[in-house]
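Design review, sub-item: ligand-bound model
Attendees: FS, YL, KQ
YL presented the inputs for the S-adenosylmethionine complex:
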Amino acid sequence: HYCFSEAPADVVFCPLCTIPVYCSRKCQEQAVGGISWNQDTYLKSNSNAVDLGILSLTSTGCMAPNSKQIAEHRHECGGAHWAAVLPADIVLAGRLMAQYIDSRMLTGKSSAISGPNLDLIQHYDVDSPTSKLESHIYAIVLLLCLQKHYRSDLSWKEETLSQLVLLICQVKVNSIAIVCMKSMDGGQGLTESKGYSAADDAVMCSVEQVKVAQAIYMSGSLFNHSCRPNVHAYFHSRTLFLRSTTYINSGSPVELSYGPQAGEMNLVKRQKSLQENYKFTCQCSSCSELHLSDLVIDSFCCPQSSCLGAVSESTCYKSEENCVHVSVDESDICKLSLPHVSKVDEDIEKVGKLFFRNNVDLKIDPGYCMSCRSQINLSSAVATSEKAASMINRFKELAVIDEISEIPITDALRSLQQIKKLRHPYSKALAQAEDAIAEAFAKIGDQEQARKHCEASIKILEKLYHPKHIAIAHELIKLVSIELSLGDRASAAATFTQAEAIFSLYYGPDVQMILPYVDALKRTVSGGFIAAP
Ligand SMILES: C[S@@+](CC[C@H](N)C(=O)[O-])C[C@H]1O[C@@H](n2cnc3c(N)ncnc32)[C@H](O)[C@@H]1O
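KQ shared the predicted structure:
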């Protein structure tokens, strides 16, 4: 939606192409300027649905380009609605070109249009032939649309098409997805009612990041990516905020995350995602040093009950003096150095003891323990754990539609035991299973069970990320809502304080603006709005 809010039911249509892109007249005027409306402006409603085909909304047109307005949509209307048919990166490239043309026209330079000089990095040379062809086709589509919009007002240079291809490539590696935090279920209720009812035991606050737009920020695009970033990026409408989340030594790189993060994805998946989406091989600290979370995140546990060693499903490790080579299906992924002796914690040594044996060259294949080399039956472990996970998800779905009985509860708990037996105690699969069970129990009103499983999930996530990661704060908020439902205000307050400290690390004084429900929860926890169960 134009102003990055969710479009309400009574959206305002673009006066030229009848596409609903504005939420209010004010929002529309900001985008296209003042509009003079015809007398017969109305929407013909056809039973329940508004029939766009008979929409009789006409105007004498948008005003001329004005630098004060953010005329994003104007260039595509009357033709194809770009956002509905083209990928976000391509729409952005088209709009940047249109903005450049507008600025040239405003200064009276409407002859010899080529393209903006953004001076940003691009990777056209390493693009695959298919991706290159795609960029050229999109550039032709954009150029035709722009030529149609500006008609004979402009003269185009021969290189405009190649400038558009270049622009598309720059947008691909430098653009940033604008996201907003959307509170689901409990969070929504909290925001609306400005309070929390313990009687509503179905509530378990959770938030989701929702992508609302794609943009280029000239200073934002200077930052490199890290899978363990020291800077957090967030948005308020169109404004990008960057806040450091740790102390950064002078001379150290300031890095944000382009998406993939350690603890959320394993090393191989992160590298693949960054290569596919941004065309680079990540060399951040997380992708150049051995970390606990990468060893355990998708792993199985050692069959020896006393061993904490991890067993990989698909990654092969070849250990050499002070480094480890990582490969999948014989193809090299990267080389990781061993952490400095001062940073080696007890956990990583127990999980991958073999990597820390001095002067030993050895290969650890999938299916073998990284600590004692015991072997598991990998295919059977994968199949059983996947089946158990889908059983738990089914349990969660049934809880949502209130169709739960004793049988699915027993089945779900049995499946959780199976996952515990097979998966590594710090694995993501186990954390997700615990979380799903917690959510289902919260939904059916067994808050004691919900608390137990929610806490178990958080403990694992703290190992995978780190205890002060924003993902942990969102999980802690779920726990607060469960503790409130139990009437345990003291625990809820302690958990909330822990979450609040993380939120202020990531959002500073903007917590309330970005996550309004946190404030509502704070008032509830401190005694304001609790209803009797
Ligand atoms: C938005 S730019 C970042 C600024 C860029 N380094 C520059 O000098 O303009 C993104 C590009 O920087 C490089 N880059 C960013 N993070 C990286 C990382 N962790 N490892 C390797 N290259 C990285 C890649 O070439 C990527 O396509």
